[in-house]
Amino acid sequence: MGVEIRVEGLRKSFGRQVIWEDVSFTIPAGEISALLGPSGTGKSVFLKNLVGLLRPDRGHVYVGGGDVPRLRESELYELRRQFGVLFQDGALFGSMNIYDNIAFPLREHTKKGETEIRRIVLEKMDMVGLSGSEGKLPGEISGGMKKRAGLARALVLDPQIILADEPDSGLDPVRTAYLNQLFVDLNTELGATFLIVTHDIGTARVLPDNLGLLFRRGLVMFGPREMVLSSTHPAVGQFFNARRQGPIGMAEEKDLAEVAAEPQGPPPMPAPIQPQLMPSDGRLRPGMRRPGQWLAEHRVTPPPGSFIDDAGHNWLTEWDALVAARRGPR
Ligand SMILES: Nc1ncnc2c1ncn2[C@@H]1O[C@H](COP(=O)(O)OP(=O)(O)OP(=O)(O)O)[C@@H](O)[C@H]1O
């Protein structure tokens, strides 16, 4: 049921450019987590450190008992089989059709025969809604289909951890909504640990169980989405509510004069917390918490208007009935 990733004291620099000084947090097994941050804060670099494509200056990345920066090449090769990675552009081979692209890791990393490979590839293509596109070349399909082909390829080795680097970049809002639903359904189906890097606040607010923000050469906050979305921390509140007022500037950090020139006063109220996306087949995800649970446990009042869905249902007060209705009549 997914694998936990524990990061301790991670520092990374390129020459004199320090990306982060000291990042420590745990990505819970089987849950969906999202990592955000202004451009250049090292989100892609972080993903590469998790799979050992880049090594930190110091610190640890514990995955399933091993410490990634300290693994030998042969051990890294084995470890990477636990990961399914969806790169920004799908990273498909342009000269191979979609079927061969998706079959590639199976042919490369396993001794499975073509009949078994065919079964797996068609199953994963069906999962991501690409059935029938086997013979198309990457250049003949849309950006959204490329992402889904990349996702199918990331799934063929039955990974315990799925990393996705801006899977929604360049997608229209409707395709983004479909992709988010697909992540929720895949997490329900596979129980894998998901870490998604995104710039899309809409995605961040409804998809994950946990949210993290990178800023100022470090991880400002990581935790359950209700904690992060109700936070009045200046950078967190600014980022997740997409405001200009706050410490994040056009170039990563505002200088003191810019901050001083801004209207002072109490931080604005966070926007209402929307209900979290649910699996489309009526199930509940194992990693999903009851709406309002974190807020109640920590005696935090939700922002006004929170947990009301498009149909006007209040997920705090009607949760049990909503869950029963999703399961359908017995
Ligand atoms: N291999 C490398 N060598 C030198 N510098 C690098 C390398 N990889 C990344 N960087 C630098 O590290 C910084 C962080 O890059 P990264 O791509 O992780 O940012 P990001 O947060 O993912 O940004 P964006 O949101 O714009 O995609 C950037 O300044 C980038 O130029």
As for the CATH topology, it is: Rossmann fold
| N-to-C SSE string, H for helix and E for strand | EEEHEEHEHHHEHEHEEHHHHH
Bound molecules: adenosine-5'-triphosphate
Poorly predicted residue ranges:
none
Please compute the radius of gyration using only Cα atoms.
21 Å
The CATH homologous superfamily is named P-loop containing nucleotide triphosphate hydrolases
* DSSP helix fraction: 25-40%
Please give the alpha-carbon distance between the first and last residues: 28 Å
Mean of pLDDT: 88
Strands ordered across the widest β-sheet:
6-7-8-3-9-10
Return the structural class.
alpha/beta
Determine and state the CATH class.
Alpha Beta
Number of strands: 10
Shape from CA axes? globular
Strand content: 15-25%
Named at the architecture level, the CATH assignment is: 3-Layer(aba) Sandwich
Number of domains: 1
**Contiguous helical run count:** 12
Secondary structure elements and their pairing?
Elements: E1 5-14, E2 17-27, E3 32-36, H1 43-50, E4 58-63, E5 66-67, H2 73-80, E6 83-86, H3 98-109, H4 114-127, H5 143-155, E7 161-165, H6 173-190, E8 193-197, H7 201-206, E9 210-215, E10 218-224, H8 225-229, H9 234-240, H10 256-260, H11 293-297, H12 319-327
Helix pairs in contact: 3-4, 3-5, 4-5
Residues 14, 19, 37, 39-45 line the site of adenosine-5'-triphosphate.
Keywords: ATP-binding, Nucleotide-binding, Transport
Organism: Actinomadura darangshiensis
InterPro entries: AAA+_ATPase (IPR003593), ABC_transporter-like_ATP-bd (IPR003439), ABC_transporter-like_CS (IPR017871), P-loop_NTPase (IPR027417)
